[in-house]
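Researcher: I'm preparing a figure for a lab meeting and need a structural model of a single chain. I don't have an experimental structure, so a prediction will have to do for now. The sequence is pasted below. Please return the structure as tokens so I can convert it later.
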Amino acid sequence: MSRPRDEWVRPYLRRYGKALALAIVLGVVTSLFACALMFTSGYMISLAAAVPLTVLALHVPSLFVRIFGIGKPLMRYGERLSSHDWVFRMMSEMRRKLYLVLARRTSALGDGAGQTTLGQVLALLTDDIGHVQDLILRGALPLVCAWLLTAAVLAGCGALSWQLLAIMAATLVLAAVVAPLVSATASRARIMAAANAQAHLYDELTDDVLGLADWMLSGRHDDYLHRLDDHLRIRDDARASVRAFDRRLRLATQVLFCLCTIGVLVWASCVFCDGASGSSLLATIAATGSENAPAYPPNWMAAFVLCLFPLMEALAPLPDAAQSYIAQRGALERLNAMSGTPDRTGAHDAAAPHSPDETRLAPRSDSSPHEQHTEAMLPACPAIELRDVSFAYDDGYPIIEGVTLTIPFGRTLAIRGESGAGKTTLAKLIYGDVRPSAGEVRVGEIDPTTLGANKHTLIGVLEQQPKLFDMTLRENLRIGKPDATDDALRDALHSVGLTDRFERMPHGLDSRIQEGAFNLSGGEAHRLALARLLLADAPIIILDEPFAALDAATEQMVLDTVMRVFRGKTVIAITHSPTTAAAMDDELALTYGMLNCNP
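Model: Understood. Here is the structure written out token by token.
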């Protein structure tokens, strides 16, 4: 299938074609003025060193030096003004267009196989539009200007001498055509690897940051950081490889220009010192002079050699321009795919979600001996005790005051109360997220704030909107238990009633859970989170408003699953729902810090 039609650059090139042509012409003229400035400056400096009979002999060369010296920055300013003005106007319109496209395609954030993830949208807004700007300013524009400059210089050299034409043609073709082609070809794989890693990093960051609470509650914050480090390392290694290749290519280009300088110097010495034959124009140049300022051979040798340096300045960045063009093409393809039909030939490669087998959540094996010892000492059947507990935030206003509570192991408990009464704060005290201002909290005679990374092995938490990551089903489940076998994963799915649902999917445990769980219903997402908690096998489960976003029928279905799979464990449900409260053994009503028990 063909790629999508370009809707982001070509229409603006037609609209601003005259401004683009003016920028190209001014860019070429600027380089020609720079060459002419060095030519006349070299001639004048060498002439002044020869001590002419009168200072008037320097008048004509100094006049040209002034003309080209003033003209070069003026032309450069005009080129920058023209090119940047139309590019920035184009970018303003493109940003507006992108927001409109995203507004029309909001359903693409969850429309199935062709979904656009939040990370991809972030990449479009922050990187891709800017990359299209670089595609023109740092990629296409320098290449076109350099090629036109090369044609103009070769035409001038051909009018002077075929030997000079041969030297310059070999140099300029290598520098303006071969070097950029080699740079783009050899670096393409590295550039695309860096682009893919950056795109995956956007996906991982948005997905993982949204699910940071789940990483923390699962005790997997180190794995979260390691995942980011892996993508950063892949991206940085690819970029370092590109930079290393650039240094080698720059060295080769400098050697090329050095050889060209030696060749022009030899040619100039043969023509102006030995009187070698050349064109009539070259003969006229060699005979230029007067009684007060004879044209010495060193004058012309210096002029022609110094004329090369602006060419080096104009052609040296071309390998970078070619790499920039290759790198930014992916951004343009993603923008076109966003506004048109998805490109099935690879336009999405840089931003596509990675394959199911690309990233595996390996079991943690780096826990310290102290952590392993602490985990081994955790009680199997812990009771929960709050002894005269009070808590206030920094403003000093008491949220919980003088609460004493005992929850025997295996009891199920509903904590109800008005918003702001301290229900969530009470759960944080039990989990060990906050330390009481007064009194003490004990879970199996252990202060939960001292558990650190082992906290998740004692207490599991299910929030109102459990986070399911843009990973495979297997990887999502293993957040609860990294070393779980496939049989254990299937048993957990069977326990929460999801076996049939995922057996119908073609890839089984390798089936991908889309970002935001758009390919699952609300009840399925909650039951999948329950399976993750079941694998963690914590003896205490805290449910923090877990069913608030579900309809009554789905709430009852998920609640039945909770009561079945966590039978024999301590379950604490923070809820406003009478249905959930009625299913628990006990109900606690919390009213602005005052705890009342209704057995």
